[in-house]
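User: Hi! I have a protein structure encoded as tokens and I'd like to know what sequence might fold into it. I'm fairly new to this, so please keep things simple.
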């Protein structure tokens, strides 16, 4: 038996239904979906249980997993739920053969059975162009380099994984793997740039695993906005809205609404680029766009 894991705190609970509707529509035979929550009020579960009877709920507070520093050591980003992907390594997930972790800011566009069949932990490269800033705050720090040397990672060629889509077979989810993640989160805390994702990249390196360069399974929206890897978009199985800040809920709702239309998928790149134009409010028809934006965001609630 397999599972899909998604983690979400109360702050982003409103986009969970968008994620789930797209998943169930495009991957109707998906395995059980486990939702790991933090800070949810009791009344928040009932409507989702009625619409999505295939959910299993897990409270992050009942699990022990490594929690390191927030992204960029910014206290405004101190949200421990971001480390809850490591919940897949805890005994609560022992019943599953393979756990596929998905960020809640993703839209599943096709079945993910290939990920469920992987024999080793599998993640995909990050699309951010400046790879030197994706793992460590200062990769040339002497103390950091000494720690890496002691861990056999001096001279390691870093290919940064984006942690938004990860396949974790049972063989790579043993207790020693979780303990190693805890050790890395503590040992390297002062040097990490992107918190949980940095820890995951260290964990991959320590297990001699490399992320795969295959954006089909983690097609990050920056590729659309920056007009990169355009030929792969039509083959994308997961669309990932990472790195979009406050615009993320709007872009996700917009893409989800358009994809449902006949032939809508091919319209998504143009729609997202238009939605992110900085001069949008100055163009004719801004009242229509403002109404559309408000309507889409209301649909999340």
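Assistant: Happy to help. Inverse folding works backwards from shape to sequence: for each of the 301 positions I chose a residue that suits the local structure. Here it is:
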């Amino acid at each position: 038996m397999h599972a899909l894991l998604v983690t979400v705190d109360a702050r982003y609970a409103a986009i969970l239904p968008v994620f789930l509707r797209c998943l169930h529509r495009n991957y109707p035979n998906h395995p059980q979906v486990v939702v790991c929550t933090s800070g949810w009020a009791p009344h928040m579960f009932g409507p989702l249980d009625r619409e999505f009877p295939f959910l299993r709920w897990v409270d992050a507070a009942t699990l022990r997993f490594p929690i390191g520093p927030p992204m960029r050591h910014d206290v405004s980003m101190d949200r421990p739920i971001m480390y809850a992907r490591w919940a897949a390594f805890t005994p609560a997930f022992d019943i599953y053969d393979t756990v596929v972790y998905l960020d809640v800011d993703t839209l599943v566009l096709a079945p993910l059975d290939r990920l469920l069949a992987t024999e080793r932990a599998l993640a995909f490269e990050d699309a951010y162009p400046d790879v030197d800033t994706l793992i460590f705050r200062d990769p040339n720090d002497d103390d950091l380099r000494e720690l890496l040397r002691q861990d056999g990672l001096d001279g390691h060629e870093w290919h940064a994984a984006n942690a938004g889509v990860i396949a974790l077979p049972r063989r790579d989810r043993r207790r020693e793997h979780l303990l190693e993640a805890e050790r890395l989160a503590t040992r390297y805390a002062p040097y990490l740039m992107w918190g949980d994702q940095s820890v995951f990249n260290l964990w991959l390196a320590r297990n001699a695993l490399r992320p795969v360069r295959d954006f089909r399974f983690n097609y990050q929206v920056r590729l659309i906005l920056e007009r990169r890897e355009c030929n792969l978009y039509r083959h994308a199985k997961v669309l990932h809205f990472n790195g979009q800040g406050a615009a993320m809920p709007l872009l996700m709702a917009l893409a989800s609404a358009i994809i449902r239309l006949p032939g809508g998928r091919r319209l998504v790149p143009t729609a997202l680029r238009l939605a992110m134009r900085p001069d949008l409010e100055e163009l004719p028809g801004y009242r229509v766009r403002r109404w559309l934006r408000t309507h889409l965001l209301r649909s999340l609630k």
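A useful reference point when you look it over: The longest strand covers residues 161-169. Feel free to ask if any position seems puzzling.
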